[in-house]
Design brief:
This protein is α/β, with parallel strands linked by helices and 200 residues long. The chain folds into two domains: 2-163, SGNH hydrolase (Rossmann fold), CATH 3.40.50; 167-200, no CATH class. The chain has six helices and seven strands. The protein has helices spanning 33-42, 57-61, 66-83, 101-119, 145-159, 189-196, and strands at residues 2-7, 23-27, 48-54, 88-92, 124-127, 165-167, 179-181. The strands form two sheets. It has a five-stranded parallel beta sheet, with helices on both faces. Strands 6-7 form a two-stranded antiparallel sheet. Helix 1 packs parallel to helix 3 and helix 3 crosses helix 4. The longest helix has 19 residues, at 101-119.
Length: 200
C-alpha cells in the first residue's frame, strides 16, 4: 500500500518520513492543475492506493477562471482514477495567500466547489485546511514550519483511518498528539512510536 502526495511548491518542506510508511512526495514547483495531470499519467508505480492532490494556487494566480480550473480538476481526478483504479483520491483545499484579497475570495469559491465534487463521489475525499491561515506563511505564498506541520496533520487525519490509525486527543503531559493502531493495524509498541508517533 503506497501513498503519493503530489502538487505545487506548497509541499516543498514535507518529508515523507513524517507522514506514513511507503509515502512519496512529488513537488512540482510552479505547477498548475494540467501539469499535475501530466505528471500523474507518467507515474510508473502500480501499488498506489492513496493519492493526495494539492494544486490550484498557481492556476488562480494566472487568472484562470474558476470554471476552467474545475474542468481541469475533474480531468485530473479522472486521470488518477484511470491510472490507479483502486486508489482513494484526497483533494487538499487551496491555501490562502498574504495580501491577496481577491485571490482568497476565488480560492474559497473553488474550495467549496471542490468539496461539493468530493461529496458526490465515493472515490474522492476532501481535506479541509481551515486551520491554516496567513500567519502560517513564510512569505506571501509558502508555508512556514508550523504551517507545514498542520498540512501534514490534516493529511494524516484523513489517510490514517484507512490505514487503521486514528489520532487521539492531545494529553496534557504530551507535547504532540499520539496515535494508536486500530483493530486492523496490529503493530508493536516500538514500531508504533518510531513510525506513527510523530506529528511533524
Amino acid at each position: 500500500m503506497e501513498t503519493l502526495i503530489v502538487g505545487d511548491s506548497i509541499l516543498q518542506n514535507i518529508k515523507p518520513s513524517r507522514v506514513y510508511r511507503n509515502t512519496h512526495v512529488r513537488t512540482l514547483r510552479g505547477s498548475n492543475v494540467p501539469q499535475v495531470t501530466d505528471y500523474i499519467m507518467s507515474v510508473k508505480s502500480s501499488n498506489t492506493t492513496n493519492v493526495v492532490l494539492h494544486v490550484g494556487t498557481n492556476d488562480i494566480d494566472s487568472n484562470i477562471s474558476p470554471d476552467a480550473i474545475m474542468r481541469e480538476y475533474n480531468r485530473l481526478t479522472e486521470s488518477v482514477s484511470t491510472k490507479f483504479p483502486e486508489a482513494t483520491i484526497y483533494v487538499s483545499s487551496i491555501l490562502p495567500r498574504r495580501n491577496k484579497v481577491n485571490f482568497n475570495i476565488i480560492a474559497n469559491n473553488i474550495n467549496a466547489r471542490l468539496q461539493s465534487m468530493c461529496d458526490g463521489n465515493t472515490k474522492l475525499v476532501f481535506i479541509h485546511n481551515r486551520n491554516i491561515s496567513i500567519r502560517h506563511l513564510s512569505d506571501e505564498v509558502h508555508l512556514n514550519d508550523r504551517g507545514t506541520a498542520l498540512l501534514v496533520r490534516n493529511i494524516k487525519d484523513v489517510i490514517g483511518p484507512k490505514l487503521g490509525i486514528n489520532r487521539i486527543r492531545r494529553s496534557v503531559n504530551n507535547k504532540y498528539p499520539q496515535y494508536y493502531s486500530g483493530e486492523r493495524a496490529k503493530i508493536s509498541e516500538t514500531y508504533h512510536s518510531t513510525q506513527y508517533n510523530n506529528l511533524f
